[in-house]
Amino acid sequence: MAMDSRRIRRTHGHGGGHIPGHGQNLTVPGRLTKAHGHTLRDHKGNDSKSESSDHDRGKYFHEHVRLENTFQLNPCEDYKFSSKQMERAMKEILDKQLTETDYNGKICPTVAANLSSLIKERAKEFPWKRYRYVVQVVVGENSEQAVQIGSRCIWDEKNDNFACVTFKNKTVFAVAACYGIYLE
């Protein structure tokens, strides 16, 4: 089926000076489109008055064309969040930042926030495109007490994943978790 192309010329029902952008010839595929508040002429010179008010003057509406989505719904295998790689990176960060640290309850919130930021920035360096990261770090005093930490998430098991590591020295313990959530 061949596409019909028609020549449209916008004209005004009044005389006067030239208005920039008005009186231009436009080629529009398909059927005749409307310019609100204007008289339209097709390629044969037939007039067609639009039905809308003058406040929309100059707008053209084309037939709705439905296009296929251009984005990828699932990551390639090489670009999936890797728990092993992330755990290695997180362990490296915790070891470097906390090995020589002694527990101080006043600075623990700041230390936890800084560790979270470092882990999140490190996650962004990996080639995992279209992932968002949620990082949680708990820092506390190591006095040989028992600690249980749990988490629950609703996610896509095929694309989303997490990494979790622990650190302990004589006075400090830390538990860090990084969640990689794929954006569809």
From TrEMBL:
A Pfam family that the UniProt record links to this protein: Tctex-1
Region (Disordered): 1-56
Gene3D superfamilies the record matches: Tctex-1 (3.30.1140.40)
Gene Ontology biological process: microtubule-based movement
CDD domains the UniProt entry points to: DLC-like_TCTEX1D (cd21451)
Compositional bias annotation for Basic and acidic residues: 39-56
A Gene Ontology cellular-component term: cytoplasmic dynein complex
Listed GO MF terms: dynein intermediate chain binding
Family to which this protein belongs: Belongs to the dynein light chain Tctex-type family.
Name assigned to this protein: Uncharacterized protein
